[in-house]
Design a protein that fits this description.
- The chain contains 3 helices and 13 strands.
- The chain is α+β, with helices and mostly antiparallel strands and 205 residues long.
- It has one domain.
- The protein has a 13-stranded antiparallel β-sheet.
Length: 205
């Protein structure tokens, strides 16, 4: 299955099935109130094509603090990835998945994908800039430049939302590891507007 992001903001977008033009996921990130720590708190809400919530990510600054997938409270990146077995080699990050020892999350400066080690095939891949991926006659809303190739796990050990979230988190790790531009959530004007709505209003006479 090939999904297209309808926005260049990967955490504030819809993903549509390229073959049908129908939405499969919706991601929306908003500023949320919380204790003042100098860092902005946000929540990314992930819904399926029918509108049901299938995941959330709680952020403190640009660090994911708590990830929930379907009915499971996963935790942070340490829990989503087997972080004690991360292999950092000069031009690659390799992380075993938590659901199948033969599946490996892999990141390089140019690529993000889920590798089936046994068959040496890519079961999922995130293309962050792929203007050449055009495979449909169906109308696709938006002008996103990112695509997600997604193959369900043959034994159903990982829901599609886990593969999506894991690849997005891997992109966050990749940016820091290889000196790529860090992810920016929203322009300051949007954040200021959001915070102003959270401030208590003064009583006026």
């Amino acid at each position: 299955m090939l999904l297209k992001f309808t926005s260049q903001d990967l955490f504030d977008t819809a993903l549509v099935d390229v073959s049908t033009g129908k939405p499969v996921f919706h991601l929306r990130t908003n500023v949320v109130p919380g204790p003042s720590s100098g860092l902005v708190r946000r929540q990314t809400e992930i819904r399926d094509g029918g509108g049901a919530i299938v995941g959330t990510i709680e952020w403190l600054g640009r660090v994911p603090q708590d990830i929930r997938l379907l009915d499971e409270s996963v935790g942070g990146l340490v829990d989503l990835f087997a972080s004690d077995t991360i292999q950092f080699i000069p031009k690659e990050i390799s992380i075993p998945t938590r659901f199948d020892t033969e599946y490996i999350w892999t990141a390089t400066p140019e690529a993000l994908y889920l590798l089936d080690y046994d068959s040496d095939t890519r079961q999922a891949q995130l293309h962050t800039h792929a203007p050449a991926l055009k495979a449909t006659h169906a109308p696709i809303p938006g002008r996103g430049a990112a695509y997600l190739e997604l193959s369900p796990h043959p034994l159903g050990l990982a829901p599609p939302v886990e593969i999506l979230v894991s690849l997005l988190m891997l992109d966050v790790l990749r940016r820091g590891r290889f000196g790529l531009p860090p992810y920016a959530f929203a322009p300051p004007s949007r954040l200021q507007a959001a915070w102003s709505r959270l401030r208590p209003r003064r009583n006026t006479v």
